[in-house]
Amino acid sequence: TEENEPQIVRGEAPEFEDGLIQIGLIQTGKESDWRDANTEDYLNTFVEERGYNLIYVDGNSSPDRQIKAMYDLIQQKVDYIIVQPIVETGWDDAIEKANQSGIPVIVADRQIKVDESKYVTWIGSDFHEEGKKAIKWLENYLTENGRSKDPLNIVVLEGTEGATAAIGRAEGIAEGIAAHDNWKVVASECANFTQGEGQSVMEEILGKTDADKIDVIISENDNMIFGAMKALEQAGASYGPNGRIIMISFDALGEAFQKMMAGKLHASIECNPLLAGNVEQVIMDLEAGIAVDKKYYTRESVYDYTNAAQYIDERVY
Ligand code: GZL
After folding, report:
1. Tag placement on the chain: N or C end, fewer CB within 10 Å?
2. What are phi and psi of 287, to 5 degrees?
3. Which residue's CA is minimally distant from atom 3 of ligand 1?
4. 23 touches 55 (CB < 8 A)
């Protein structure tokens, strides 16, 4: 009954008779400001005073290095492995090894393509839903501005190929666009979630498609659209709520709020990078023998140039 359940009081990590819990964290590598916030949250959560020894491995944007890191952490006999995969594939053997070694694996942020019985739980965002939210925002914006019938040429900046965030968002976006026969994708290119590639890919696109032939840019994260803005400025193109091209991105970084308030970005679909608290709760539950769910979705909103000023002070990354 309720009173017999071991109550974990939030914020008080349970006492571990045998010292610190050994946590292996396999991170993707530097890609975006979202990633920095995501990493910092883990570093601030899994600290010694809360009973953890965090072994942090930077994947350096290399899926192979991430796989090798999992074998290394298994070798070190850590108590838990948290993996933030770059891509979904390639994990079967390493996960099998972790299972054989009795080390629970928690997957966070993007997903991995293995049977869900092979890992304890997944915590992250509904990326497909995020993609649909971007289209819904665009549909509402066009309706409010009497432009629902306008033919639109759309550019999509894609995230890392094979990453759940990119796959899910792309599906949601593509489904939404397919529902409008007056909308056309004139370019859809991968810029790996980075600002530098966002700029260089947009420069290439502008070499083939005149800026005045582009009506909408949908970027699968904020940093790529920040880079694209530099390319648009170099081309003398007009964009954002104060300009012509409709600009939509994902992550809702603090800098995206500034860009929305500056009339350079129309909307950013929030993707919550602060996953460490939820991951820690799962580990505390497991330590206390409390069953955990297979999936935990983060809560996320949509922000745009009409409400960015209202929320910017609450943003923590
Ligand atoms: C989303 C995450 C993506 C972000 C990018 O959960 O995987 O990777 O949207 C980040 O900014 O680089």
Report:
1. N
2. -65, -30
3. 165
4. yes
CA of 84 to the centre of ligand 1 (A): 10
For residue 147, the one-letter residue type is: R
Mutation choice for ligand 1 from 27, 109, 270, CB with most ligand atoms inside 8 A:
109
Cα separation of the two ends of the chain: 40
Q: Which of 31, 34, 122 to mutate to test the pocket of ligand 1 (most atoms within 8 A of CB)?
A: 34
Tokens found for residue 275 = 């996953």
Predicted-assembly ipTM surpassing the 0.90 threshold: yes
Atom of ligand 1 nearest to the CA of 273: 6
Helix (H) or strand (E) holding 228: helix 222-234
Choice from 30, 35, 218 to test ligand 1 binding pocket (greatest atom count within 8 A of CB): 35
Tens-binned pLDDT, residue by residue, of the chain (317 aa): 345 444 433 445 444 446 899 999 999 999 999 999 999 999 999 999 999 999 999 999 999 999 999 999 999 999 999 999 999 999 999 999 999 999 999 999 999 999 999 999 999 999 999 999 999 999 999 999 999 999 999 999 999 999 999 999 999 999 999 999 999 999 999 999 999 999 999 999 999 999 999 999 999 999 999 999 999 999 999 999 999 999 999 999 999 999 999 999 999 999 999 999 999 999 999 999 999 999 999 999 999 999 999 999 999 99
With CA atoms as reference, report the closest residue to 219 among 168, 162, 153, 268.
268
The residue behind tokens 């991951």 is: 279
Beta strand residue intervals within the chain, DSSP E: 21-27, 52-58, 80-83, 105-108, 121-124, 152-158, 183-190, 216-219, 246-251, 267-270, 295-297, 302-304
Q: How many angstroms separate the CA atoms of 297 and 215, rounded?
A: 33
**Total-model pTM:** 0.92
